[in-house]
Metallo-beta-lactamase domain-containing protein (Anaeromicrobium sediminis), 365 residues
Amino acid sequence: MLLIIMSSILILILTMGVLFMEFSPQFGGKLTEKDYERIKKSKNFQKGKFKNIEDTHSMTSTDLRWIIEYFTSKDTTPNFSVPVENSNLVSYNEDQGDNVKVIWFGHSALLLEINNKKIFLDPMLSEVPAPHPMLGSKRFSTNLPMGIDEIPELDAVVISHDHYDHLDYVSIKKLKDKVKMFYVPLGIGAHLKSWGVEETKIVELDWWQEAKFEELTFISTPSRHFSGRGLFNRDSTLWSSWVIKGKDVNIFFSGDSGYSESFKEIGEKFGPFDLTMIECGQYHEAWSKIHMMPEETVKAHIDLKGKLLLPIHWGAFKLSLHPWDEPVERLLKEANSLNVSVTTPKIGETVILGKSVPSSEWWKK
């Protein structure tokens, strides 16, 4: 009888899980035949999946001790609420002209202004980077620099890939009506359309393809990562880094990536960059091919011929096993030894190129 009860409970849990994945909008849309016809033309799409340029395994070790580490590692979350600047919208709008401005929202979410155009990069603004609040760790800060309703009208949203900590259902639903255009890697349009974004507002690009928006140019460039929002759609959509070129200014956004020789190629083709925003956190030796170590972040910045480095993909969520502030400490040590300029704004603090480059060690309580 006990076996029957346990089996029934297991079947019920599995059934609920399948139904949740099938009908919950957070998992995104499904690719259509029309989508596949376009995707199949990409040389990066092979045997039904997108591939990295370099041989890449998301897990380089079969040792599963890191699962135990996830629950036993120390200092993986701060013992205080991460400070957030809340009054940036007024000062952000007061500073007009051709200044390049960026506000970091934590992790990889950034509000960028270039040539008076407002662009949101990977706007993950929810409390938990997961399809359900019970399936992920909460944000380190208790608030954001500005609520979604306060965010100004956006000329563009740029998405690097479809993982939950970069492409967020709730954020897109709330932002979509104030966004003129979405620039995304191949396949991600299916998610956006299922969430109510008009098809005419979506531009999907393969690596090295570009799109114009008035005086701006958006270029999808390679990264070394993977994609997927469910159990059965791994690598069905493309992942990208991005080059954003404006009038007399050049910006690079890494999205997620392990270190790759592609950084040198991007630097040769499109560098030098006035600002690079490159991931430096959520690394581990078990997945070192898809997430850079902080020292590699500095190396990538140099490969890109970057002038100023803003480290991202840290400071908001626990997604790995290292101490929460280790990424920036390791990065600064390496950057100082190589004379690399780094800005470390608090979440919500405005960086203005050539005018205001915050460098406080705010993570040290």
The longest helix spans residues 2-23. The chain has nine helices and 16 strands. The CA atoms of residues 99 and 138 lie 34 Å apart. The radius of gyration is 20 Å.
